[in-house]
Amino acid sequence: MNRSAIFLATSPTGDPGTWTHRGTVVESSTSDDFNAIDPALVVDADGRWWLSFGSFWSGIKMIRLDPQSGLRSGTAFHSVAGRGGGAIEAPTIHRRGDYYYLYVSFDVCCQGADSTYRVMVGRSTSVTGPYVDRTGVPLTQGGGTQVLAGHGSIHGPGHQTVFSDVDADVLMYHYYAGSGASFLGINLLGYDDAGWPYVD
Questions:
Q1: 25 near 44, Cβ under 8 Å?
Q2: Averaged over 79-99, what is the pLDDT?
Q3: 116: domain range?
Q4: What's the rounded Cα separation, in Å, for the pair 48 and 118?
């Protein structure tokens, strides 16, 4: 079902009991072809706020936010990635140099050691895309360059985020061990000569 919504709440401290509901940011209904879950905020080079979100259906979407209210600004609705209804979700966008890197998770989460989640990426010089993979295939047409997949005792790494630390960019994600137990994974990212990220 894609009857979903993303809401905003604010707090002056982050402490329990201090949060105030500010309203609906975006929602989806069963008549829509997208799913309003997995939100991730990015601020572009000009200081504008954008929210990426989405899961399965027609893929990953993006809307602009008002930085004063945190709620939606305007009606523009951008499609930035999709697999023709296939398994894609958990977008996060990281700006580095001249590029915006869109990380997404392909395939299936939450099946313990049988999970097939993997971290994929595309990039664009514009925050709203078009995003393409290393070979030039648009992410809206199923493209994506693999950054991390299951290996050894690591199963289904995904639902990632990326941030800049003082010495490197950092990839964080969840994964399963062979026993089915879930863990948090943290890796530094390196970038090759063409500017594509890899797990260091």
A1: no
A2: 97
A3: 4-199
A4: 29
**How many whole angstroms separate alpha carbon 88 and alpha carbon 92?**
12
Burial class (CB in 10 A: 0-12, 13-18, 19+), 74: exposed
pTM of this prediction? 0.96
What torsion do the CA atoms of 92, 38, 137, 199 make, to the nearest 10 degrees?
Answer: 40
Domains identified in the chain, total number: 1
Number of residues assigned to the chain: 200
Task: Please give the backbone phi and psi of residue 198, each rounded to the nearest 5 degrees, phi first.
Answer: -145, 160
CA-based radius of gyration for the chain: 17
**Which of these, 80, 79, 93, lies nearest to 32 by C-alpha position?**
79
Residue whose token pair is 């879950």: 37
CATH code: domain of residue 165: 2.115.10.20
Model confidence pLDDT, tens digit, residues 142-163: 999 999 999 999 999 999 999 9
Residue at 130: amino acid letter? P
**Cα–Cα dist 171/200, whole Å:** 10
CB atoms within 10 A of CB 188: 12
Residue (of 149, 193, 195) closest to 173 by Cα position? 149
Q: Average model confidence (pLDDT) for the chain?
A: 97
Q: Locate all alpha helices (DSSP H) within 57-138, ordered by sequence.
A: none
